[in-house]
């Protein structure tokens, strides 16, 4: 794809998210960032981690959670729980001081880990969050006042996902959309102002992934990856534009779809399942998806367990989990032109990654921040530092500061290059 083509894809994706409010450069207002692709446009970040680790701007104690972090216009938002309740909490992005917290649901406990799982979304003067059992809430940005609350599984005649509700809400100009995972609706949209159900689509388990707005084959659509496969929906009505079956063991399609060109996307799953690249084409009946590359089974090049891969300059960088939810995870670089793995860092470890300033910023389950040069030439580690305890959350990056969290605290790291 040409540089102009790649830019058009990025701008089209961001335009859909920003239809209700302009995205501020450097914000990270939702799961996987402004384009919901794990990519930041920020530059002038440090070239490598210093020997003593990155500068800590602040640390703030919080409770148990698998929720990620959203940052917008100086506000840092996440979910956590104490012994009795789940909360949405807002911190000052500069100091880490608590601005407000709002109880939104009872405590959530699960054999795969306690606490909420999803990342809030900040959009305009509203904040949207989805709790561990599937209560979708809308709050005011300035004070955390509850505007409305809907128990999604209960409303749609279902039960929470077996391992907890992990979908992060996505917001359009009029609605907030989640993968509901019930027999009445695999996906549902709610009026962002009133909480009224606007539409519901499909049926079946959610699969733990989060939907992504993409423009593919010239059509803006909501791409959903649930327990049975991928599909494209009209964001306004929920009508199905295309579908592709991709069932996995334990209903664990957890990583979000990744757009790799103007008409192609990649879906990937762990549990030794693998990856498929789908090509979207316009037809007389609308859109059709066909597989143009598969890499499946125990010898697959990419089995993304829960980590969404990122794309830069025709190469995909992702975390490949070897085995059935086993401990072996490899960091890989795949050339998209011919689908070849150009390098692999074997046994890198279970981690999450984002892309910024030509580098991969990786949070490991051990609580380390690792920086890797995003280049197809070779694996090149630029630093590693322990900054937290055990964590599963992907980093968030805003205005040169990296935000991470574990079950005890949120840490803000200053990654800005020193001014001369």
Describe the fold and architecture:
This protein is mainly beta and 420 residues long. It has a single domain (3-414), classed as 8 Propeller (Methanol Dehydrogenase, Chain A), CATH 2.140.10. The protein is built from two helices and 33 strands. The strands form eight sheets. Strands 1-27-28-29-30 form a five-stranded mixed β-sheet, with no helix packed on it. A four-stranded antiparallel β-sheet has the order 2-33-32-31, with no helix packed on it. It has a four-stranded antiparallel β-sheet with strand order 3-4-5-6, with no helix packed on it. It is globular and about 55 Å long. Residues 1-24 have low confidence and may be disordered.
Instruction: Tell me how many strands there are.
Output: 33
Helix fraction? under 10%
Structural class: mainly beta
Q: Helical segment tally?
A: 2
Cα gyration radius (Å): 20 Å
CATH fold call: Methanol Dehydrogenase, Chain A
Q: What is the CA-CA span between the terminal residues?
A: 37 Å
Poorly predicted sequence stretches spanning 5 or more consecutive residues: 1-24
Largest sheet: 5 strands, mixed
Strand order of the largest sheet: 1-27-28-29-30
**Share of β-strand residues:** 35-45%
Q: Mean pLDDT, nearest integer?
A: 92
Q: How many domains, as an integer?
A: 1
What's the CATH C level?
Mainly Beta
CATH homologous superfamily designation? Quinoprotein alcohol dehydrogenase-like superfamily
CATH architecture: 8 Propeller
Q: Using the alpha-carbon principal axes, give the shape.
A: globular
